[in-house]
Design a protein that fits this description.
The chain folds into three domains: about 10-130, Rossmann fold (3-Layer(aba) Sandwich), CATH 3.40.50; about 135-285, Arc Repressor Mutant, subunit A (Orthogonal Bundle), CATH 1.10.10; about 300-390, Trna Endonuclease, Chain: A, domain 1 (3-Layer(aba) Sandwich), CATH 3.40.1350. About 45% of the residues lie in helices and about 15% in strands. The chain has helices at about 10-20, 35-40, 55-60, 65, 85-95, 110-115, 115-120, 135, 145-155, 155-160, 165-185, 190-200, 210-220, 220-235, 265-270, 275-280, 285-305, 345-350, 380-390; strands spanning about 25-30, 45-50, 75, 100-105, 125-130, 240, 255-260, 310-315, 320-325, 330-335, 360-365, 370, 380.
Length: about 400
């Protein structure tokens, strides 16, 4: 039985771009729903996937005929035939009025996708599709237990929308990623060591990235760790939150903080057996922090909102979990895994807010409703944080 389609928040942005640009490119990690999304949005557009070896061969042998097969064309996994792109460029330059002529998807892990902005500069609108957001899944999370069920399951469509067994999905996902994408992208000679490093990273969610410590524990060189981490970040499996500097005079740390692109994958790598074991385990706070950060990233990608995300930590160990600059305002966010916010949770924000001009401060919690402890002290549910931050609501 075919699963019902779950609408994606990015749909209006894609529709608008397809009316304005001759090429629309949708990148993202594997299994985030790129193909499903484009086929749903543009059901009358011809579709071809380069994952299919026969289709790939046809595109390689006669790219002009392949691209001319229909007035508009969705091409899935474009990275498999990079030689198509110069022909795409020639065709759109011949008629720039033909908006939405080519709709492309591709894994962001491949170097080709990173270079698309230069290859099709001025011709293509480029978007990134992340796994489902909390908002897209609906069903408000009204308890901490439900919150950790969502953290445990993760946000990949197959698990949360299509009924695929969680353990089976993540096992297959990791195996496919290691055996297929990694071998295509770079020379990783020891896949077992690479997978071991991924597990070590999952155990360090929310921590400062320490390359030398990771290299020592993984038994590989620091340059190798740096190269593999760059690969994982490009692929969307991990996210490095950079430290905020701005024009502040205090000494700040320079290392980024490490998070995973999906909490379900990280929980599976660490072999947590149940949501309850994760909730009451030693990393529960770090996983909750990971959830809040990634939800903000999804909002930014899906709605095209302006804003940059950082954290703040200085040499005196003063720290703010999340700093979001949206242009007019700097939002300072403490993330607390609690359903009962208290005035003490604002202590760091009260102390550091004067350092940040034009700033607003709040605490993101696991509570179901917003609470105002005073005119300046607002505790917001984690599920509402992105909306408030990126809309600059007080």
């Amino acid at each position: 039985m075919k699963s019902a389609y779950v609408p994606r928040d990015i749909e209006p942005e894609l529709r608008a771009a397809a009316r304005q640009f001759p090429v629309v490119v949708l990148t993202g990690a594997r299994q985030t729903g790129k193909s499903t999304l484009l086929q749903h949005l543009f059901p009358n557009v011809a579709y071809a996937t380069l994952d299919d070896p026969f289709t790939r061969q046809a595109a390689q042998e006669d790219p002009r005929s392949f691209l001319a097969q229909a007035p508009r064309l969705v091409i899935d996994e474009i990275q498999h035939v990079p030689d198509l792109l110069p022909h795409v460029k020639v065709l759109v330059d011949a008629d720039r009025r033909n908006a939405g002529r080519f709709l492309l998807t591709g894994s962001q892990a491949f170097p080709l996708m990173a270079g698309l902005g230069e290859t099709l500069a001025g011709r293509a609108a480029i978007f990134q599709l992340l796994p489902f957001s909390h908002h897209e899944l609906g069903n408000p999370v009204v308890s901490v237990d439900r919150c950790f069920q969502r953290i445990f399951d993760g946000f990949y469509p197959d698990v949360v929308a299509h009924g695929v067994d969680r353990n089976r999905f993540y096992s297959s996902y990791v195996q496919t990623y290691l055996e297929r994408d990694i071998r295509l992208m770079t020379a990783v000679h020891d896949l077992k060591q690479f997978q071991n490093l991924v597990g070590l990273l999952a155990a360090r969610i929310g921590n400062l990235l320490n390359l030398n410590e990771l290299a020592k524990e993984a038994g590989i060189s620091a340059p190798t760790v740096r190269r593999w981490i760059a690969l994982l970040e490009t692929a969307g499996l991990i996210y490095l939150l950079r430290p905020y500097s701005g024009n502040l005079s205090k000494r700040i740390v320079k290392s980024p903080k490490l998070y995973f692109g999906d909490t379900g994958l990280a929980a599976w790598l660490l072999r947590y057996p149940t949501p309850n074991s994760l909730h009451h385990g030693p990393q529960s706070g770090a996983f909750f922090e990971n959830l809040v950060l990634i939800e903000c990233l999804k909002h930014k990608a899906n709605f095209g909102t302006v804003g940059e995300l950082f954290f703040y930590r200085d040499s005196n160990h003063n720290e703010i979990d999340l700093v979001v600059e949206t242009g007019a305002t700097t939002h300072l966010v403490e993330i607390k895994q609690t359903a009962t916010p208290k005035a003490a949770h604002f202590d760091v924000l009260r102390r550091l807010q004067p350092v940040f001009p034009r700033s607003r401060a709040c605490v993101a919690t696991a509570a179901a409703k917003e609470e105002r402890l005073s005119a300046q002290l607002v505790a917001r549910p984690w599920s509402q944080l992105a909306d408030c931050v990126f809309s600059d609501n007080p």
